[in-house]
UniProtKB/TrEMBL annotation:
<feature type="domain" description="ACT">
    <location>
        <begin position="732"/>
        <end position="811"/>
    </location>
</feature>
<dbReference type="InterPro" id="IPR002912">
    <property type="entry name" value="ACT_dom"/>
</dbReference>
<dbReference type="GO" id="GO:0008773">
    <property type="term" value="F:[protein-PII] uridylyltransferase activity"/>
</dbReference>
<keyword id="KW-0460">Magnesium</keyword>
<dbReference type="Pfam" id="PF08335">
    <property type="entry name" value="GlnD_UR_UTase"/>
</dbReference>
<keyword id="KW-0548">Nucleotidyltransferase</keyword>
<keyword id="KW-0808">Transferase</keyword>
<feature type="domain" description="ACT">
    <location>
        <begin position="843"/>
        <end position="924"/>
    </location>
</feature>
<dbReference type="InterPro" id="IPR045865">
    <property type="entry name" value="ACT-like_dom_sf"/>
</dbReference>
<keyword id="KW-0677">Repeat</keyword>
<keyword id="KW-0378">Hydrolase</keyword>
<dbReference type="InterPro" id="IPR006674">
    <property type="entry name" value="HD_domain"/>
</dbReference>
<dbReference type="InterPro" id="IPR003607">
    <property type="entry name" value="HD/PDEase_dom"/>
</dbReference>
<dbReference type="Pfam" id="PF24931">
    <property type="entry name" value="ACT_ACR9_3rd"/>
</dbReference>
<dbReference type="InterPro" id="IPR002934">
    <property type="entry name" value="Polymerase_NTP_transf_dom"/>
</dbReference>
<comment type="similarity">
    <text>Belongs to the GlnD family.</text>
</comment>
<dbReference type="InterPro" id="IPR010043">
    <property type="entry name" value="UTase/UR"/>
</dbReference>
Length: 924
């Protein structure tokens, strides 16, 4: 995109050619020995050149200049090899060599290369190739390939090239950026002239449409949002390719030759061009460092490279934000600027397109779709089905119009006109403290926020233009802020906007199939406004040194009165922000069949209306984290917690408990087993301890009875049932076998060895010494029959392990050797042992870095401590595992001894960081 004349190094290039000539003079140039020496010389030249350029990048931080230096290095090498092949490998006896030339095309043609980019070449001929030219090309290509370069090449005549560019827009774009390297310059000039006259002329509209469609497809492949926390620097939304697309369009339509010419063409102002240059240089810096770091053409800024990139780019840690988070925030702000530039150029091109329509057609179009005023008529108008300003002084005359504009857009269901967006971005300084505290501005904003049909898109437009961050400075602090973890897929501001969008989907009923309970409850809320505001603010205090829930509640108490909320509404919003994680944590990491769990949660919630709002907020929060985070199992846990808490808070809990008491549960099962012989039925009713009857629902009790009866009749020591649950997003695997002290550990190991992720486990022992254990594993396959087979593989591996035919530890250690993305993170393990969370069980909670085999090692450690696990609740938040076990000693007592608790902590810390195979060998 920029010229390379400032960074070309003719002295080095001449030295390389001289070195190659000197080698050729020592022997037969075509011999294997000479070729080997030539290749060694080129490798040394390329390696030393790249290392010098990398050092300069570290020194000056100029990414664009680094790319130009790399391109100049490659120019010198390619020209030297080309000349060597022409002079020594295939020398011509004629004074005048046959005419052909070599051009750089595509990315290389722009004169900028990332360290491991492809080298795209075009060999151009006036007519067909000659044997000599074929040998020259073959020698050059094989040398480049042997150097480890990825070379794309075409060998065509001028006519063939023009035919190809007519048929293929990708080739047309590559040739658009063609740059002469060596050979017959007149031939290259002929291609450029004919390309302009025969291809470009009259096809601007076709090219623009193709490039914009290609951009949309690229964004869809790499992730539609520009705020994905592992962005693609080259092809992602807001990445390099978006800037390059702008230049391609400008070069094709206006025949500009450099980025700076965008100003001369009138597509960008001087200030906008400076922003273009800053974005371009920053993205080149990131991409060049990324290639050097990965030592390959890596374009994704993954978690494992983000900290080192931040260090190389000079970012420092600040209170509340790690250096890597500050680097990524800068990246996302640049991506946003790229989006702004894209809109600016698109608007200018659209305006010119309108002007270039033939006069009569313009007249007809204006009659069909004339601009019309909306609202009071003095501020805004509809211009080509989009909202625009009535004049350029609308925001100057009354800055509150910056909020009215978006309110009118929502009310009229109109997209924003690019001209208005451009004026808004230049008027942001008018949003001062007076506007922020203006009652009318805040009333309009609250209406935007609580509009179930337009809240998310309009808020996103306010954020993209910078209005939202200026109007609410607290929100401005979290714009483009990423959280360095694998759980959150988006930046904090994008997460908040998406959560509001999910709430709107629930209120409108659009998400009734996914969230039936939330959609059922939403219309019964006393105050929907409170819930919208709470969702918008729930992560507003991320990036601060203190807990973001506590700090966020303070922010809510400060902002809500400004929005016009009453003191009671303000306190409810603050409470929801303070407790926005409580329901999720309780549902995923506590035993919901334990009365104390429900009582503790009910004490926090205190009212049914708060319970309803917290349930809906929790659903929206989890859904907005990212694709694949929400599943039906989490929904089932939330529904269970909601129902049990509601029952307790309405005073029906004791009645409900009595209805599920042991005698009643037995009576229900007896009724469902009425066709059984009396003796078999009586034995089944005496087979379970009270905990089983209180925790397992009647349908599952009946299925368990059939499983046990079948195992007994067939004299099987091991029986299982696999049941895919599509809506819950899990597969239920139930096992019946003689009890074994390490059974849960073996189950966990078998699941991990087969790639199955356990999300919950229920463990029961029968009165005749059998184990009846159920684990719920995350669903990964679309069809029930495939999930059925997957669950059966897990069960069969467990059976083989119990029979001694398979060593789980060996399978686990083999699995653990595979590289995990979580290796980029470090989490200090936390272990808590509490006796207040359950009436009869001790709750052991472990929070640490997730890894393959972790649950196997933890459950093995607990079993070796002679602890009886009553239930296990497994939650994973990206790289963070939060596993909770309800345990007793072997005689059913809580663990109250401090010495015993210390022993448990030490053993679990060892399990978190140790090798399962080594411990098994030691134990045996």
């Amino acid at each position: 995109m920029s010229r390379t004349r400032h960074v070309e190094r003719p002295v080095e290039a001449e030295r390389l050619s001289a070195a190659l000539n000197a080698i050729a003079e020592t022997g037969e140039p075509t011999s294997p020995e000479i070729r080997k020496r030539i290749l060694a010389e080129l490798k040394a030249h390329l390696g030393e050149g790249r290392e010098a350029i990398r050092a300069k990048l570290d020194e000056d931080g100029r990414g664009g200049l680094c790319a130009e230096r790399l391109s100049a290095l490659m120019d010198g090498l390619v020209r030297a090899v080309f000349d060597f092949a022409c002079n020594w490998i295939c020398p011509s006896p004629d004074a005048l060599l046959e005419s052909f030339c070599l051009a750089a095309v595509g990315g290389y043609g722009r004169g900028r290369l990332a360290p491991h980019s492809d080298i795209d070449l075009l060999f151009l001929f006036p007519s067909k190739q000659t044997p000599r030219s074929e040998k020259v090309i073959e020698y050059l290509l094989y040398i480049l390939w042997d150097l480890g370069l990825k070379v794309g090449h075409g060998t065509r005549t001028v006519a063939e090239t023009l035919k190809s560019v007519r048929e293929d827009m990708t080739i047309r774009t590559a040739v658009l950026e063609a740059r002469f390297l060596c050979g017959d310059r007149a031939l290259f000039d002929e291609l450029v002239r004919r390309f302009d006259t025969e291809i470009v002329a009259g096809t601007a509209r076709e090219f623009i449409a193709a490039k914009l469609a290609e951009r949309d497809q690229r964004h869809a492949r790499s992730g539609v949002s520009r705020y994905l926390v592992e962005p693609q620097v080259k092809d992602g939304k807001g990445g390099q390719r978006d800037l390059q697309t702008l230049f391609w369009i400008a070069k094709y339509v206006y025949r500009v030759s450099s980025n700076e010419a965008l100003v001369g063409a009138g597509l960008l102002s001087r200030e906008e061009y400076r922003l273009f240059r800053r974005c371009d240089d920053f993205l080149w810096s990131v991409r060049c460092h990324l290639h050097f770091l990965a030592n390959r053409p890596e374009e994704r800024i993954s978690f494992d490279v983000q900290p080192e990139l931040a260090r190389r780019l000079g970012y420092q840690k600040h209170p509340g934000m790690e250096a890597v988070e500050r680097f990524m925030k800068h990246y996302f702000l640049v991506a946003k600027d790229v989006g702004d530039l894209t809109r600016i150029v698109s608007a200018e091109l659209e305006e010119r397109e309108q002007k270039n329509v033939p006069r009569l057609s313009r007249l007809v179009r204006s009659f069909r779709n004339p601009p019309r005023k909306i609202g009071d008529g003095s501020r805004f108008m509809v211009d080509h089905d989009r909202i625009n300003v009535a004049n350029d002084r609308v925001f100057e005359s009354d800055p509150v119009n910056l909020i009215r504009f978006f309110h009118q857009a929502a009310a009229s269901d109109l997209a924003l006109h690019p001209d208005a967006v451009r004026l808004i971005t230049h008027s942001l300084g008018r949003i001062d403290r007076a506007v922020q505290h203006d009652p009318e501005a805040n009333r309009l904003f609250l209406e935007i926020l609580t509009d179930p049909d337009h809240a998310e898109p309009v808020l996103r437009a306010m954020n993209e233009t910078g209005v939202l961050g200026r109007f609410i400075p607290e929100f401005g602090k979290i714009v483009a802020m990423m959280q360095f973890n694998m759980y959150h897929h988006y930046t904090v501001d994008e997460h908040l906007l998406r959560s509001v969008g999910f709430l709107a989907g629930i209120e409108s009923g659009r998400l009734a199939e996914d969230h039936p309970r939330a959609c059922e409850v939403m219309p019964t809320l006393k105050d929907r406004t409170v819930l919208y505001v709470a969702l918008f603010l729930h992560d507003i205090a991320k990036g601060r040194p203190e807990d973001h829930s506590t700090a966020g509640a303070r922010v809510a108490r400060r902002l809500c009165p400004r929005f016009g909320l009453t003191p009671q509404q303000t306190e409810t919003v603050a409470w929801l922000v303070q407790e926005h994680l409580t329901m999720s944590i309780t549902a995923q990491s506590r035993d919901l069949a334990d009365r104390r769990t429900i009582q503790t949660f009910a004490n926090v919630v205190q009212s049914l209306d708060r319970l309803k709002m917290l349930m809906i907020l929790t659903v929206c929060d989890i859904r907005a984290v990212g694709p694949g985070v929400w599943n039906g199992w989490k929904g089932q846990l939330l529904r269970t917690l909601y129902a049990e808490t509601g029952t307790m808070m309405t005073g029906r809990f004791e009645e409900a408990r009595q209805s599920r008491a042991v005698p009643h549960a037995k009576a229900r099962l007896a009724e469902s087993l009425a066709s059984w012989p009396e003796a078999e039925r009586a034995r089944m009713l005496d087979l379970h301890y009270p905990a089983y009857w209180l925790r397992v629902d009647p349908d599952r009790q009946a299925r368990h009875a059939e499983l046990i009866r079948s195992a007994d009749s067939e004299h099987r020591k091991f029986a299982y049932e696999v049941r895919p649950l599509a809506f819950e997003g899990v597969t239920e695997v139930t096992l019946f076998t003689p009890d074994h002290p390490r059974l849960l550990s073996i189950i966990a190991g078998a699941c991990a060895a087969t790639g199955a992720n356990i999300v919950d486990a229920q463990i029961f022992t029968t009165t005749d010494g059998h184990a009846l254990d159920t684990v719920f594993i995350s669903r990964t396959l679309d069809h029930d029959e495939d999930e059925q087979r997957r669950g059966e593989r897990v069960a069969l591996l467990i059976e083989q392990a119990l029979q001694g035919r398979v060593r789980i530890s060996e399978a686990m250690d083999s699995k653990a050797r595979k590289k995990r993305r979580g290796e980029a993170f470090s989490i200090e393990p936390q272990i808590s042992i509490e006796n207040e969370l359950s009436d009869r069980l001790t709750v052991v909670s472990i929070e640490c870095l997730d890894r393959t085999g972790l649950l196997y090692d933890l459950t093995r450690g607990l079993s070796e401590l002679n602890l009886d696990i009553a239930s296990a609740h497994i939650a994973t938040f990206g790289e963070r595992a939060v596993d909770t076990f309800y345990v007793t000693d072997l005689v059913g007592h809580k663990i109250t001894s401090q010495r015993r608790q210390s022993e448990i902590r030490m053993r679990l810390l060892g399990a978190i960081g140790g090798s399962s195979a080594a411990r098994e060998q030691k134990a045996s």
